[in-house]
Amino acid sequence: MNRPVQLHGRTHRITTGCGAMYVIVNRNGDDGIKEVFASLGKCGSCSKASNEAITRCISVGLQNGVPVEKYISTLKGIRCDKVVVSQEHILSCSDGIAKILEQELTYTGSDF
Predict the structure, then answer these.
(1) How far is Cα 40 from Cα 94, in angstroms, rounded to an integer?
(2) How far apart are CA 25 and CA 5, in angstroms?
(3) pTM of the entire structure?
């Protein structure tokens, strides 16, 4: 897929055991989710590098026809030693990314 010059996205802030994580989900109009980025505030950390790798792989898959539901079911429930208990249990950064993607499935695009 040739990436359009402009995509529309939403940024989600989620608290993980590694700190605040910002997950950016970009869409190409009605074609659905096309890119995912996740950023942690800890520069150069292993967690930050892992999240970058995960979201790059998700983005490549989405751009090549892999349904977002596959990523949700694969990542959801992955647990690390730093579980965050808030309104929703965030078991790991990967689990947090899956939960954001799941929220995005019901998004109607009305706030653009």
Answers:
(1) 12
(2) 16
(3) 0.87
76, 98 Cβ separation under 8 angstroms: yes
| H or E, element range at 47 | helix 46-63
Angle at 54 between CA 58 and CA 109, to 5 degrees: 45
Tell me how far apart the alpha carbons of residues 49 and 72 are, in angstroms, rounded to a whole number: 20
Tokens 């608290």 belong to which residue?
A: 15
| pLDDT tens readout for residues 15-64 | 988 889 999 999 987 778 999 999 987 666 788 889 999 999 999 999 99
The first and second tokens of residue 71, run together, are: 């990523």
C-alpha distances out from residue 74 to 10, 40, 65, Å: 22, 21, 16
